[in-house]
Specification:
binds tryptophan; 2 domains; 55% helix; two-stranded parallel ribbon; three-stranded parallel sheet; Rossmann fold; 6% strand; mainly alpha; Tyrosyl-Transfer RNA Synthetase
Length: 329
């Protein structure tokens, strides 16, 4: 039997190249080998009280992007978390066994509470139990997530194990992080420091929906330095980051020729950026066009979402039924 994989993404806006090369491309590679549930975590996004129009739009945007990038709704259950209300029931049950102390100690809670002291709501505190419900509702074997989610996954295992101990049953398994290994390509931001999408400014990231002019503008403005001064010197972080983008988006020859130019101090960053911009445009344009096509077809999007939710509902309703029975309802 195929192993079960679950992952969610918060609907915070358009997807960028970092999302694509980090997770999305790997999700798509998993769709044949695993029984995948990839959902949009719209319940989770309520912790920040999004405007209903934005919420609707962002959910659609992610759905369309997933499909445009090659996720096959026939193979993967693609759905919105809010289309699977069974999750909420499991969340309630798990909350009964989740302790205030452990929730307060969670790093993401502490960070968010520090950043938004006026909005430390119960949903934020129990973010990890909702995430555990997302995962345990399908009795997932693997959860493909980045480093920043590992603590949440650890808490999921704690809640699963605790549920088993309380009821003296070996009901939930222990979902593991799925490690993409060398397939996880890091995409730096255009401001020279950190990952793409990390900074608040949209100028740090190239979105799959950016048009040609926007891509050109963003890349031409990417941070550089005043150039190499010694032959074969080591590249400082900003420049190494720019070269990483060239490596991912341009041909090997292009990379080699700019690398040589850097090493013999003849490089002109303007030339590098122009080439990078053109190659990025070539890469992004087909995705952008496909996303727009899909977004224009509301009936199709609705159908994908419904079919995904039905598939998810099959496994979720079974879990909730069994859990209710174990609990004594
Ligand atoms: N917390 C995840 C994030 O911020 C999103 C998420 C919600 C998730 N539920 C999940 C990821 C379940 C994996 C599995 O990126």
């Amino acid at each position: 039997m195929k192993r079960i994989v679950v992952s969610g993404i918060r609907p915070t806006g358009n997807l960028h190249l970092g999302n694509y090369f980090g997770a999305l491309r790997n999700f798509i590679r998993m769709q044949d080998e695993y029984n995948c549930y990839f959902f949009i975590a719209d319940y989770h996004s309520l912790t920040t009280h999004p405007h209903p129009d934005h919420l609707r739009q962002n959910v659609k945007q992610i759905l369309a992007s997933y499909i445009a990038c090659g996720m096959d709704p026939e193979k993967v259950a693609i759905y919105a978390q809010s289309d699977l209300p069974e999750t909420v029931e499991l969340y309630l049950f798990l909350n009964m066994n989740a302790y205030l102390g452990e929730l307060e100690r969670c790093t993401s809670f502490k960070d968010k509470a520090r950043q938004n002291p006026d909005n430390i709501n119960a949903g934020l505190l129990t973010y990890p139990t909702l995430m555990a419900a997302d995962i345990l509702i399908h009795k997932a074997d693997y959860v493909p997530v980045g480093k920043d989610q590992e603590q949440h996954l650890e808490m999921t295992r704690t809640f699963a194990h605790r549920f088993n101990s309380i009821y003296g049953m070996d009901y939930f398994g222990q979902p593991q992080a799925f490690n993409f290994g060398s397939n996880l390509v890091k995409i730096p931001g255009l401001d020279g420091s950190g990952k793409m999408g990390k900074s608040e400014s949209g100028n740090n990231a190239i979105f799959l929906t950016d048009d040609d002019a926007v891509i050109r503008k963003k890349i031409m403005r990417a941070t550089t330095d005043s150039g190499p001064v010694e032959m074969n010197q080591q590249k400082p972080e900003v420049i190494a980051n720019l070269f990483q983008l060239v490596k991912v988006l341009c041909s090997e020859e292009t990379y080699k020729s700019f690398d040589e130019a850097y090493n013999n101090c003849t490089i002109r960053y303007g030339d590098l950026k122009k080439q990078l911009a053109e190659d990025t445009i070539k890469f992004v344009a087909p995705f952008r066009e496909r996303i727009q096509e899909i977004l224009a077809d509301d009936a199709y999007l609705e159908k994908v979402r419904r079919v995904g939710a039905e598939k998810a509902h099959e496994s979720a309703s079974k879990t909730v039924r069994e859990v209710r029975n174990i609990i004594g309802f």
